[in-house]
Design brief:
Elements lengths: L1 H28 L4 H5 L13 H9 L2 H32 L5 H11 L8 H10 L6 H5 L6 H12 L3 H9 L4 H12 L1 H16 L3 H6 L8 H4 L4 E2 L2 E2 L1 H26 L3 H6 L2
Antiparallel strand pairs: 1-2
Helix pairs in contact: 1-14, 3-14, 4-8, 4-11, 5-8, 8-11, 11-14
């Protein structure tokens, strides 16, 4: 039994190393010279640490402005998606109104449409509204997520009806129940929605590239283009920029990780 467990741990460690190796290589290449980073090698650590690569990276493009734009856009999209998903998910789960099932099936059907297919109509609409090269163009089209609405609806459906009945006896309406009782009970699902919305917006490249024309509204993902030229890519600086850009997503994931192991029912009956 101990030998089998040892083999299992060894197999899991090998799998973890294979999964982490590209990230470790990226981090190591961030502090290598251009020649060393461009030479195929299994060495993760540079021969001489080039700490000046960080300074050169921020000189190559206005990453301070790019980071501000990225956090502003991703944060706004995250808050908007959370708000719309909470209200729509609760309405589809608890409220009775005509056409509820049909409307929900239409929302589910929109998940089958490739997001690239919506670029042209969204771009035409943005242009006619005069939002081209503005924060509104980066935020407004992504304020609603069909998948997030579906996820929140399932979370509210999993709540026992007794919670709402007890709240009604205490004088709660739908809005008060949602704010004071519903949100704490579905917090794990809400954190998942927030995480997906933030990361999806933060990592977006194609749409920001289409609707922006200068550095004023551009995001960090577009900043990576600064390390490409006709002579090729400055691989060491590109890896350095990629390492810096990925740090916020890693930190956010570790902060939100504990919510993934909680269940809705466990949160509801705790205490």
């Amino acid at each position: 039994m101990k030998f089998n467990r040892l083999l299992l741990y060894l197999f899991l460690c090998c799998g973890a190393f294979l999964a982490l190796y590209p990230f470790l290589w990226m981090l190591g290449a961030s502090f290598k010279t251009l020649n060393e980073a461009s030479t195929p090698s299994l060495n993760l650590l540079p021969k001489v640490w080039q700490w000046s690569n960080v300074t050169e990276t921020f000189r190559a493009a206005p990453f301070g402005l790019y980071f501000f734009n990225s956090f502003l856009v991703a944060g706004s999209v995250c808050l908007s998606v959370c708000a719309t998903s909470l209200m729509a998910g609760y309405a589809f789960a608890r409220l009775q109104f005509k056409g509820r099932q049909l409307l929900f099936f239409i929302i589910l059907g929109s998940m089958m449409v490739p997001f690239e297919l919506t670029f042209i109509p969204n771009f035409v609409l943005i242009s006619r509204l005069g939002w081209y090269n503005s924060y509104a163009a980066l935020i407004v089209p992504w304020c609603v997520s069909a998948f997030s609405i579906f996820l929140m609806r399932q979370a509210f459906l999993a709540l026992p009806r007794d919670f709402y009945d007890a709240a009604v006896l205490d004088g709660c309406g739908h809005l008060r129940f949602l704010v004071r009782i519903g949100i704490p009970l579905v917090m794990p699902s809400l954190v998942t929605v927030a995480l997906f919305a933030f990361l999806g917006s933060y990592n977006a490249l194609l749409w920001p590239l289409i609707v922006t024309a200068d550095d004023r509204c551009r995001v960090v993902q577009i900043g990576l283009v600064a390390f490409y030229s006709d002579a090729g890519a400055r691989l060491n600086l590109l890896m350095c920029a990629s390492s810096i850009i990925i740090l916020p997503t890693v930190l956010i994931y570790f902060v939100a990780q504990r919510y993934f192991v909680q269940t809705t029912m466990g949160t509801g009956i705790k205490g």
